[in-house]
Every structure is written in C-alpha cells, then in structure tokens.
Amino acid sequence: MSVAGAGAAAGMTGERSLFELRERIPQKVYALLESRGFTTLRPAQVKAIAAGLFDDSHLLVCTPTASGKTLVAELAALNGVLHDRGKALYIVPLRALASEKYRQFKRDYPSLSIAMSTGDLDETSGHLGNSDIVIVTSEKLDSLLRHRVEWLARVKTVIIDEVHLLNDPGRGPTLEIVITILKRALPKAQLIALSATIGNKEELAAWLDAELVEDAWRPVRLEKGVYLDGSIEFVD
C-alpha cells in the first residue's frame, strides 16, 4: 500500500495547519511541536501521519531533500519515548551526520536525554541505556548487537537515515545485516526509513513491510533547463 504524491504542483498545496491535526497527534508530541513554534506540517509529514506514523506502522519515506523527512522520524521517536516509554534508535551512515543530528536533537529537545555512539566498535557503551534517543552509525550498531547489550530490548522506534545506502558496496552489507537482525530481535519496534533518492522504493518497502510515503514537495522549486552560450532555456 502506498501513500503517494501527485506531483510538485499538488505537493505545494499539501501543507496543513498543526491545529487541524491536533486530534491525530499524541498530546505530549503536539505540545512539543507547539513549544518549538510549529504552526503547519509539510505534505510528507501529513501523509506519514495518515499512513500510521502514530499507530506504530513501519514507514519508508521517500521525499526530496529539505521536504521534512527528519521531522517525521523525530515525531515517531518522540511518540515512542513519551507515550510508549521506550527508547529510540537513530541509525546514520557517517560520524559527521551523527554529530549533526546529536547537536540538533540536544538543541530541539532539551527535556530528553540524547546520546551518540560512533567510537570504538568493541566498546559496548553501557551509558547509552540511560538515554531516550541514541544516535549510532550502522557499524557501531552492528557491534552493539553482537555484544547483545541489554538496553536494545527497550527500543521502541528504529530510524534508518539514508536507507538507500543499502546499495552502497562498502556500507550496504552491514546496514542490511543490522536491519535484518533488528527486525527479528525487535518485532514490536516501529521502523522508519528515510531516503531522498531511491530507485526500487516499492521493493524496499515490501522488504521492510512498510507503508511507502512519497511526495514531490520541496521548499524551493526545482527548475530544469539547458545552458548554452551564456543563456538558460528552462524546460516546462
């Protein structure tokens, strides 16, 4: 089943008032959004809610860069932490991205305990068990899984950023193994996968047993054109 966009033009009109969606957003999550100054949600976020974001549905979110995918993941994580009293695991491919997300989450959610672990693969990082949201690279998570750390059993939400890297010759195999193990070890955890670009999204959604959320909305209109001799002819 797919929740699909109808193109850029339709996506541009797909934003919704946060107040209109208040009945569909858990109370504590809604309060945090209000406190951060949100008044509207973008099309991908609205579609994710419709696809079961707050009903523990697995989602594969395929939308352009800066379209609001990260907030979809944050909403799922907040729901898992605040309402289901679990932990959220945020998997990223690079240490630099882990550091970026860590700083962002610490800034945006000061009331939650945020941790990051990307270091020595043989370290079990026991302190992570006391954190609400744990940000890790796929390689680090592979190590934690092999060490069978106790706190992983309390994970309620698993977020996989840049999931298209499953096709990467270097990082892809580790990420695939990690996802496969997590699906078996945490059958009740919600899985949220994010990608701005992926070719076989329907096949990937089927493998993840996830609803496919698509939309073409982007904050800046994307123009296509041909540059020749100092001038650009744009294509409609």
Walkthrough of the structure:
The chain has 236 residues and is α/β, with parallel strands linked by helices. The chain has a single domain, classed as Rossmann fold, CATH 3.40.50.300. The chain is 34% helix and 22% strand. The chain is built from eight helices and twelve strands. It has helices spanning 8-11, 27-35, 43-50, 69-82, 95-108, 138-146, 172-185, 201-208; strands at 2-3, 16-17, 40-41, 59-62, 87-92, 114-117, 133-137, 155-160, 190-195, 211-214, 224-228, 231-235. The protein has an eight-stranded parallel beta sheet with strand order 1-10-4-9-8-5-7-6, with helices on both faces. A two-stranded antiparallel sheet has the order 2-3. α6 packs across α7 (172-185).
- Work out the count of structural domains: 1
The total strand number stands at: 12
Specify the structural class: alpha/beta
**Outline type:** globular
Side by side, the strands of the main sheet go 1-10-4-9-8-5-7-6
Poorly predicted runs: 1-12
* SS summary, helix count: 8
Share of residues in helices: 25-40%
